[in-house]
Amino acid sequence: MKLVCSFRLNVISPPPKEVGSLSVDCFLNNLKVGLSMAKEDSVAKKMAQLIRQGAVLTQYTCPVCGTPLLKLKSGNYYCANCDREVVVVKSEEEEREVNIKYGLINVRDVVFSKIMELSKELPKANDIDEVNHYAVTLTNLLNALSMINKLINEQGKQSK
């Protein structure tokens, strides 16, 4: 007897109760293929929309997922699957500069989110010591944010 695993994408039904492990594997495979095809379809639609808006399909692929990259009107490269910008570098030095810049941007984003969290907690503080603690922490975070922004701006000036 030969078991055949179908790859129907429209209908995914649960495996029968009396099945062996092979049928369960077929079910899981159907589920995985159905989900990945749905994701691929949404990525293809997003790419088509961007191309209609003037983006150009390039010979480059995303280093994370392998999806072809689009060059947007802005000149930036974009992966529709990862939903993020991809930077194309020509040298190891340029790669190092880009890694530093984006590393600093990530740190800035974390510091900013902490500032926002504390600003929501500050009105709830009842005790003067608690208010003072929040104020000192916010001051430190704002100073850190300022320094990070200066570093990002200096990094941008060096790479030009």
If you consult CATH, what is the topology of the largest domain? Methane Monooxygenase Hydroxylase, Chain G, domain 1
Number of helices: 3
Radius of gyration: 25 Å
CATH architecture of the largest domain: Up-down Bundle
What layout of secondary structure does this protein have?
Layout (H helix, E strand, L loop, with lengths): L20 H32 L3 E6 L6 E4 L5 E3 L4 E3 L5 H30 L6 H31 L2
Antiparallel strand pairs: 1-2, 2-3, 3-4
Helix pairs in contact: 2-3
Key terms:
Methane Monooxygenase Hydroxylase, Chain G, domain 1, 4 strands, 2 domains, 3 helices, 160 residues, 10% strand
Quick synopsis:
This protein is α+β, with helices and mostly antiparallel strands. The protein folds into 2 domains: 21-86, no CATH class; 92-158, Methane Monooxygenase Hydroxylase, Chain G, domain 1 (Up-down Bundle). It has 3 helices and 4 strands; from the N terminus they run αββββαα.
Can you put this structure into words, describing what you see?
With 160 residues, the protein is α+β, with helices and mostly antiparallel strands. It has two domains: 21-86, no CATH class; 92-158, Methane Monooxygenase Hydroxylase, Chain G, domain 1. It is 58% helix and 10% strand. The chain is elongated, with a radius of gyration of 25 Å.
